[in-house]
Amino acid sequence: MRSNGHKLKHKRFHLNARKNFTLRVAEQWNKLSREVMESPSLETFKPHLDVFLLHLLQVTLPWQEGWTRCSPELPSISDDSVLSPLTSPPRGQPRARSRPGLAAPGAGGSSEAGPAHVTGGGGGPGGAGPPRRGSAERRRVGDAERPGPGQMMAIRELKVCLLGDTGVGKSSIVCRFVQDHFDHNISPTIGASFMTKTVPCGNELHKFLIWDTAGQERFHSLAPMYYRGSAAAVIVYDITKQDSFHTLKKWVKELKEHGPENIVMAIAGNKCDLSDIREVPMKDAKEYAESIGAIVVETSAKNAVNIEELFQGISQQIPPLDPHEISNNGAIKLGRQTSQTGRRCC
Ligand SMILES: Nc1nc2c(ncn2[C@@H]2O[C@H](COP(=O)(O)OP(=O)(O)OP(=O)(O)O)[C@@H](O)[C@H]2O)c(=O)[nH]1
Protein backbone atom coordinates (compact mmCIF):
# COMPACT_ATOMS: atom_id res chain seq x y z
CA MET A 1 0.00 0.00 0.00
CA ARG A 2 1.31 3.42 -0.93
CA SER A 3 1.29 6.17 1.71
CA ASN A 4 -0.73 9.35 1.14
CA GLY A 5 2.51 11.35 0.91
CA HIS A 6 3.77 9.02 -1.78
CA LYS A 7 0.51 9.31 -3.74
CA LEU A 8 0.58 13.10 -3.49
CA LYS A 9 4.16 13.18 -4.71
CA HIS A 10 3.18 10.91 -7.58
CA LYS A 11 0.21 13.10 -8.51
CA ARG A 12 2.35 16.25 -8.38
CA PHE A 13 4.89 14.61 -10.66
CA HIS A 14 2.23 13.74 -13.21
CA LEU A 15 0.71 17.22 -13.12
CA ASN A 16 4.13 18.71 -13.62
CA ALA A 17 4.81 16.34 -16.50
CA ARG A 18 1.48 17.13 -18.14
CA LYS A 19 2.13 20.87 -17.86
CA ASN A 20 5.52 20.46 -19.44
CA PHE A 21 4.14 18.37 -22.25
CA THR A 22 1.56 21.04 -23.07
CA LEU A 23 4.28 23.69 -22.99
CA ARG A 24 6.41 21.72 -25.40
CA VAL A 25 3.64 21.21 -27.88
CA ALA A 26 2.67 24.88 -27.61
CA GLU A 27 6.26 25.89 -28.15
CA GLN A 28 6.47 23.69 -31.25
CA TRP A 29 3.24 25.16 -32.52
CA ASN A 30 4.50 28.73 -32.03
CA LYS A 31 7.69 27.85 -33.81
CA LEU A 32 5.76 26.41 -36.72
CA SER A 33 3.51 29.49 -36.95
CA ARG A 34 6.60 31.70 -37.03
CA GLU A 35 8.08 29.61 -39.80
CA VAL A 36 4.87 29.80 -41.79
CA MET A 37 4.96 33.59 -41.61
CA GLU A 38 8.55 33.58 -42.79
CA SER A 39 8.32 30.85 -45.42
CA PRO A 40 8.33 32.32 -48.89
CA SER A 41 6.68 29.28 -50.46
CA LEU A 42 4.76 26.15 -49.67
CA GLU A 43 7.77 24.10 -50.65
CA THR A 44 9.88 25.67 -47.91
CA PHE A 45 7.08 25.34 -45.43
CA LYS A 46 6.54 21.61 -46.01
CA PRO A 47 9.66 20.35 -44.18
CA HIS A 48 8.74 22.55 -41.19
CA LEU A 49 5.35 20.91 -41.03
CA ASP A 50 6.95 17.45 -41.33
CA VAL A 51 9.28 18.18 -38.48
CA PHE A 52 6.51 19.61 -36.35
CA LEU A 53 4.42 16.49 -36.80
CA LEU A 54 7.41 14.30 -36.09
CA HIS A 55 8.21 16.29 -32.96
CA LEU A 56 4.62 16.06 -31.85
CA LEU A 57 4.58 12.30 -32.33
CA GLN A 58 7.93 11.94 -30.68
CA VAL A 59 6.81 13.93 -27.67
CA THR A 60 3.38 12.36 -27.42
CA LEU A 61 4.14 8.68 -27.79
CA PRO A 62 6.87 8.29 -25.20
CA TRP A 63 5.00 10.43 -22.71
CA GLN A 64 1.85 8.39 -23.08
CA GLU A 65 3.84 5.23 -22.79
CA GLY A 66 5.88 6.54 -19.91
CA TRP A 67 2.80 7.90 -18.11
CA THR A 68 2.22 4.73 -16.20
CA ARG A 69 5.91 3.97 -15.83
CA CYS A 70 6.73 7.35 -14.28
CA SER A 71 7.69 7.22 -10.67
CA PRO A 72 7.93 10.09 -8.20
CA GLU A 73 11.58 9.20 -7.75
CA LEU A 74 12.32 10.43 -11.25
CA PRO A 75 14.08 13.79 -11.42
CA SER A 76 12.00 16.92 -11.86
CA ILE A 77 11.49 17.97 -15.45
CA SER A 78 13.39 21.16 -14.93
CA ASP A 79 16.59 19.14 -14.53
CA ASP A 80 19.55 19.83 -16.77
CA SER A 81 20.32 18.04 -20.01
CA VAL A 82 17.65 17.85 -22.64
CA LEU A 83 17.61 15.92 -25.84
CA SER A 84 15.48 14.89 -28.67
CA PRO A 85 15.34 11.20 -29.42
CA LEU A 86 14.05 12.06 -32.90
CA THR A 87 15.94 9.77 -35.20
CA SER A 88 15.44 7.92 -38.42
CA PRO A 89 16.28 4.20 -38.66
CA PRO A 90 19.93 3.35 -37.99
CA ARG A 91 21.84 3.19 -41.23
CA GLY A 92 20.69 -0.13 -42.73
CA GLN A 93 18.61 -1.10 -39.70
CA PRO A 94 14.93 -1.01 -38.70
CA ARG A 95 13.47 2.14 -37.11
CA ALA A 96 14.24 2.68 -33.45
CA ARG A 97 12.26 5.23 -31.46
CA SER A 98 15.15 6.59 -29.49
CA ARG A 99 18.87 6.44 -29.56
CA PRO A 100 20.29 3.71 -27.38
CA GLY A 101 22.09 5.23 -24.45
CA LEU A 102 20.08 8.45 -24.65
CA ALA A 103 17.19 8.63 -22.23
CA ALA A 104 13.70 9.06 -23.61
CA PRO A 105 11.05 11.10 -21.82
CA GLY A 106 9.53 9.30 -18.92
CA ALA A 107 12.15 6.61 -19.13
CA GLY A 108 14.15 7.78 -16.13
CA GLY A 109 17.62 9.28 -15.78
CA SER A 110 18.42 12.97 -15.64
CA SER A 111 17.86 13.64 -19.32
CA GLU A 112 14.70 15.22 -20.54
CA ALA A 113 13.36 14.78 -24.01
CA GLY A 114 11.69 17.28 -26.28
CA PRO A 115 13.22 18.88 -29.29
CA ALA A 116 12.09 22.35 -28.42
CA HIS A 117 12.02 22.16 -24.64
CA VAL A 118 14.59 24.55 -23.31
CA THR A 119 15.35 24.62 -19.61
CA GLY A 120 15.10 28.21 -18.45
CA GLY A 121 13.07 29.27 -21.45
CA GLY A 122 15.91 30.56 -23.61
CA GLY A 123 17.73 29.33 -26.66
CA GLY A 124 14.86 27.79 -28.58
CA PRO A 125 15.65 26.91 -32.16
CA GLY A 126 14.57 30.34 -33.34
CA GLY A 127 16.64 32.37 -30.93
CA ALA A 128 17.92 32.88 -27.42
CA GLY A 129 15.08 34.39 -25.43
CA PRO A 130 15.23 35.56 -21.85
CA PRO A 131 14.99 32.99 -19.07
CA ARG A 132 11.87 32.59 -16.95
CA ARG A 133 11.80 34.85 -13.92
CA GLY A 134 13.83 33.33 -11.09
CA SER A 135 14.88 30.38 -13.21
CA ALA A 136 18.55 31.12 -12.65
CA GLU A 137 18.20 30.04 -9.02
CA ARG A 138 16.31 26.89 -9.91
CA ARG A 139 18.69 25.69 -12.58
CA ARG A 140 20.91 22.73 -11.96
CA VAL A 141 24.48 23.35 -12.73
CA GLY A 142 24.91 19.92 -14.28
CA ASP A 143 28.41 18.57 -14.06
CA ALA A 144 29.98 21.99 -13.67
CA GLU A 145 31.37 23.11 -10.35
CA ARG A 146 28.82 24.80 -8.15
CA PRO A 147 29.82 28.17 -6.77
CA GLY A 148 30.81 28.17 -3.11
CA PRO A 149 28.80 29.93 -0.39
CA GLY A 150 28.65 33.68 -0.97
CA GLN A 151 30.18 33.25 -4.41
CA MET A 152 28.02 34.19 -7.35
CA MET A 153 28.55 32.83 -10.80
CA ALA A 154 26.63 34.07 -13.78
CA ILE A 155 25.01 31.37 -15.85
CA ARG A 156 24.96 32.24 -19.52
CA GLU A 157 22.92 30.31 -21.98
CA LEU A 158 24.77 29.97 -25.24
CA LYS A 159 22.99 28.59 -28.22
CA VAL A 160 25.33 26.41 -30.24
CA CYS A 161 24.47 24.56 -33.43
CA LEU A 162 26.27 21.71 -35.16
CA LEU A 163 26.34 21.69 -38.93
CA GLY A 164 27.95 19.38 -41.47
CA ASP A 165 27.41 16.53 -43.89
CA THR A 166 25.41 13.51 -42.88
CA GLY A 167 27.48 10.82 -41.15
CA VAL A 168 30.41 13.02 -40.16
CA GLY A 169 29.69 12.43 -36.47
CA LYS A 170 27.83 15.53 -35.26
CA SER A 171 25.48 13.60 -32.99
CA SER A 172 28.34 11.42 -31.78
CA ILE A 173 30.33 14.51 -30.79
CA VAL A 174 27.37 15.91 -28.84
CA CYS A 175 26.68 12.56 -27.26
CA ARG A 176 30.32 12.20 -26.19
CA PHE A 177 30.40 15.75 -24.82
CA VAL A 178 27.12 15.59 -22.90
CA GLN A 179 26.89 11.94 -21.90
CA ASP A 180 30.41 10.65 -22.43
CA HIS A 181 28.94 7.90 -24.55
CA PHE A 182 29.64 6.59 -28.04
CA ASP A 183 27.32 4.44 -30.13
CA HIS A 184 28.55 2.68 -33.27
CA ASN A 185 24.97 2.21 -34.47
CA ILE A 186 23.75 5.73 -33.88
CA SER A 187 20.81 6.70 -36.12
CA PRO A 188 20.83 9.62 -38.53
CA THR A 189 19.15 12.68 -37.03
CA ILE A 190 15.76 13.82 -38.27
CA GLY A 191 15.21 17.56 -38.11
CA ALA A 192 17.43 18.28 -35.15
CA SER A 193 18.05 17.15 -31.61
CA PHE A 194 18.77 19.15 -28.52
CA MET A 195 20.94 18.73 -25.44
CA THR A 196 22.43 20.98 -22.81
CA LYS A 197 25.60 20.94 -20.84
CA THR A 198 26.96 23.49 -18.39
CA VAL A 199 30.67 24.10 -18.02
CA PRO A 200 32.61 26.58 -15.89
CA CYS A 201 34.48 29.34 -17.68
CA GLY A 202 36.31 31.83 -15.49
CA ASN A 203 33.72 33.50 -13.26
CA GLU A 204 30.88 32.31 -15.42
CA LEU A 205 29.01 29.13 -16.11
CA HIS A 206 28.37 28.51 -19.76
CA LYS A 207 25.23 26.54 -20.37
CA PHE A 208 25.48 25.25 -23.91
CA LEU A 209 22.10 24.85 -25.56
CA ILE A 210 23.21 22.49 -28.28
CA TRP A 211 21.21 22.02 -31.45
CA ASP A 212 22.48 19.05 -33.39
CA THR A 213 21.11 19.46 -36.92
CA ALA A 214 20.42 16.71 -39.43
CA GLY A 215 23.07 16.51 -42.14
CA GLN A 216 20.85 14.96 -44.78
CA GLU A 217 20.21 17.28 -47.71
CA ARG A 218 16.43 17.15 -47.31
CA PHE A 219 16.73 18.94 -43.94
CA HIS A 220 18.99 21.69 -45.23
CA SER A 221 16.20 24.26 -45.38
CA LEU A 222 15.64 23.90 -41.63
CA ALA A 223 19.18 24.91 -40.73
CA PRO A 224 18.56 28.69 -40.47
CA MET A 225 16.17 27.99 -37.62
CA TYR A 226 19.06 26.49 -35.68
CA TYR A 227 21.91 28.83 -36.52
CA ARG A 228 19.73 31.94 -36.12
CA GLY A 229 20.64 33.54 -32.78
CA SER A 230 23.48 31.08 -32.17
CA ALA A 231 26.52 32.28 -30.29
CA ALA A 232 28.61 29.58 -31.95
CA ALA A 233 28.49 27.02 -34.73
CA VAL A 234 30.49 23.80 -34.76
CA ILE A 235 30.98 22.79 -38.38
CA VAL A 236 32.01 19.19 -38.62
CA TYR A 237 33.73 17.25 -41.42
CA ASP A 238 34.99 13.70 -41.57
CA ILE A 239 38.77 13.58 -42.07
CA THR A 240 38.34 10.41 -44.16
CA LYS A 241 35.94 12.12 -46.62
CA GLN A 242 37.12 14.96 -48.82
CA ASP A 243 33.50 15.62 -49.87
CA SER A 244 32.53 16.41 -46.31
CA PHE A 245 35.23 19.11 -46.27
CA HIS A 246 33.65 20.71 -49.34
CA THR A 247 30.27 20.61 -47.63
CA LEU A 248 31.84 22.29 -44.61
CA LYS A 249 32.98 25.17 -46.82
CA LYS A 250 29.43 25.56 -48.12
CA TRP A 251 28.16 25.79 -44.54
CA VAL A 252 30.74 28.43 -43.70
CA LYS A 253 29.64 30.43 -46.76
CA GLU A 254 26.00 30.17 -45.72
CA LEU A 255 26.81 31.20 -42.15
CA LYS A 256 28.77 34.20 -43.38
CA GLU A 257 25.92 35.26 -45.63
CA HIS A 258 22.93 34.50 -43.42
CA GLY A 259 24.21 33.64 -39.93
CA PRO A 260 24.56 35.94 -36.92
CA GLU A 261 27.17 38.62 -37.44
CA ASN A 262 29.77 37.66 -34.85
CA ILE A 263 29.05 33.97 -34.57
CA VAL A 264 32.00 31.95 -33.23
CA MET A 265 32.91 29.29 -35.77
CA ALA A 266 34.63 26.09 -34.71
CA ILE A 267 35.73 23.49 -37.24
CA ALA A 268 35.90 19.89 -36.08
CA GLY A 269 37.71 17.31 -38.22
CA ASN A 270 36.07 14.24 -36.74
CA LYS A 271 37.08 10.55 -36.84
CA CYS A 272 40.77 11.29 -36.25
CA ASP A 273 41.02 7.73 -34.92
CA LEU A 274 40.90 6.75 -38.62
CA SER A 275 43.88 8.88 -39.65
CA ASP A 276 45.40 5.97 -41.61
CA ILE A 277 42.61 6.42 -44.19
CA ARG A 278 42.56 10.20 -44.01
CA GLU A 279 41.62 12.20 -47.11
CA VAL A 280 41.81 15.70 -45.62
CA PRO A 281 45.27 16.78 -44.43
CA MET A 282 45.28 18.68 -41.15
CA LYS A 283 47.30 21.40 -42.89
CA ASP A 284 44.41 22.13 -45.30
CA ALA A 285 41.94 22.43 -42.45
CA LYS A 286 44.27 24.70 -40.47
CA GLU A 287 44.89 27.01 -43.42
CA TYR A 288 41.20 27.21 -44.20
CA ALA A 289 40.26 27.85 -40.56
CA GLU A 290 42.85 30.60 -40.37
CA SER A 291 41.47 32.22 -43.52
CA ILE A 292 38.00 32.49 -41.99
CA GLY A 293 39.07 33.16 -38.37
CA ALA A 294 37.69 29.90 -36.99
CA ILE A 295 38.92 27.55 -34.30
CA VAL A 296 39.98 24.17 -35.68
CA VAL A 297 40.56 20.87 -33.96
CA GLU A 298 40.65 17.22 -34.99
CA THR A 299 38.33 15.14 -32.84
CA SER A 300 37.34 11.56 -32.28
CA ALA A 301 33.94 11.07 -30.73
CA LYS A 302 34.77 7.38 -30.64
CA ASN A 303 37.95 7.73 -28.59
CA ALA A 304 36.93 10.93 -26.77
CA VAL A 305 39.74 12.94 -28.31
CA ASN A 306 39.52 16.75 -28.18
CA ILE A 307 35.77 16.83 -27.55
CA GLU A 308 35.97 18.78 -24.28
CA GLU A 309 38.69 20.93 -25.85
CA LEU A 310 36.41 21.81 -28.75
CA PHE A 311 33.75 23.26 -26.46
CA GLN A 312 36.35 24.85 -24.17
CA GLY A 313 37.73 26.56 -27.27
CA ILE A 314 34.27 27.95 -27.98
CA SER A 315 33.83 29.10 -24.38
CA GLN A 316 37.10 30.96 -24.58
CA GLN A 317 35.97 32.85 -27.67
CA ILE A 318 32.83 34.15 -25.97
CA PRO A 319 33.38 37.65 -24.58
CA PRO A 320 32.82 37.77 -20.80
CA LEU A 321 29.52 39.16 -19.60
CA ASP A 322 29.25 42.86 -18.98
CA PRO A 323 28.70 43.28 -15.17
CA HIS A 324 25.68 45.48 -15.97
CA GLU A 325 24.02 42.53 -17.64
CA ILE A 326 23.88 40.71 -14.32
CA SER A 327 20.96 42.07 -12.34
CA ASN A 328 21.11 42.58 -8.57
CA ASN A 329 19.47 39.27 -7.72
CA GLY A 330 21.90 37.30 -9.79
CA ALA A 331 19.53 36.62 -12.68
CA ILE A 332 21.12 37.07 -16.05
CA LYS A 333 19.82 39.23 -18.81
CA LEU A 334 20.26 37.01 -21.79
CA GLY A 335 20.62 38.47 -25.19
CA ARG A 336 22.34 37.65 -28.39
CA GLN A 337 25.87 36.96 -27.21
CA THR A 338 26.91 37.54 -30.76
CA SER A 339 26.10 41.23 -30.66
CA GLN A 340 29.25 41.85 -28.70
CA THR A 341 32.51 42.43 -30.44
CA GLY A 342 36.04 41.82 -29.17
CA ARG A 343 36.76 38.22 -28.22
CA ARG A 344 38.38 37.47 -24.92
CA CYS A 345 39.66 34.35 -23.31
CA CYS A 346 38.28 33.35 -19.93
N1 LIG B 1 35.55 5.75 -36.26
C1 LIG B 1 34.72 6.72 -35.86
N2 LIG B 1 33.41 6.66 -36.17
C2 LIG B 1 32.61 7.67 -35.77
C3 LIG B 1 33.09 8.77 -35.02
N3 LIG B 1 32.07 9.61 -34.78
C4 LIG B 1 30.99 9.06 -35.34
N4 LIG B 1 31.30 7.90 -35.92
C5 LIG B 1 30.39 7.02 -36.64
O1 LIG B 1 29.92 7.70 -37.80
C6 LIG B 1 28.57 7.39 -38.07
C7 LIG B 1 27.73 8.64 -38.16
O2 LIG B 1 27.68 9.28 -36.90
P1 LIG B 1 26.57 10.36 -36.49
O3 LIG B 1 26.98 10.92 -35.19
O4 LIG B 1 25.21 9.80 -36.60
O5 LIG B 1 26.76 11.42 -37.68
P2 LIG B 1 25.89 12.73 -37.94
O6 LIG B 1 26.82 13.73 -38.52
O7 LIG B 1 25.17 13.13 -36.71
O8 LIG B 1 24.86 12.24 -39.04
P3 LIG B 1 23.40 12.87 -39.37
O9 LIG B 1 22.58 12.71 -38.13
O10 LIG B 1 22.88 12.07 -40.52
O11 LIG B 1 23.62 14.30 -39.74
C8 LIG B 1 28.13 6.43 -36.95
O12 LIG B 1 28.26 5.11 -37.40
C9 LIG B 1 29.13 6.69 -35.85
O13 LIG B 1 29.31 5.58 -35.01
C10 LIG B 1 34.49 8.80 -34.68
O14 LIG B 1 35.02 9.70 -34.03
N5 LIG B 1 35.25 7.74 -35.14
Automatic annotation (TrEMBL):
Compartments it resides in: Cytoplasmic vesicle, Phagosome membrane; Early endosome
Pfam families according to UniProt: Ras (PF00071)
Sequence similarity: Belongs to the small GTPase superfamily. Rab family.
Listed name of the protein: RAB31, member RAS onco family
GO CC list: early endosome; phagocytic vesicle membrane
Biased composition, class Gly residues, residue ranges: 119-129
Compositionally biased tracts (Basic and acidic residues): 134-146
Region annotation (Disordered) ranges: 78-149
MF-aspect GO terms: GTP binding; GTPase activity
Gene label: RAB31
InterPro entries linked: P-loop_NTPase (IPR027417), Small_GTP-bd (IPR005225), Small_GTPase (IPR001806)
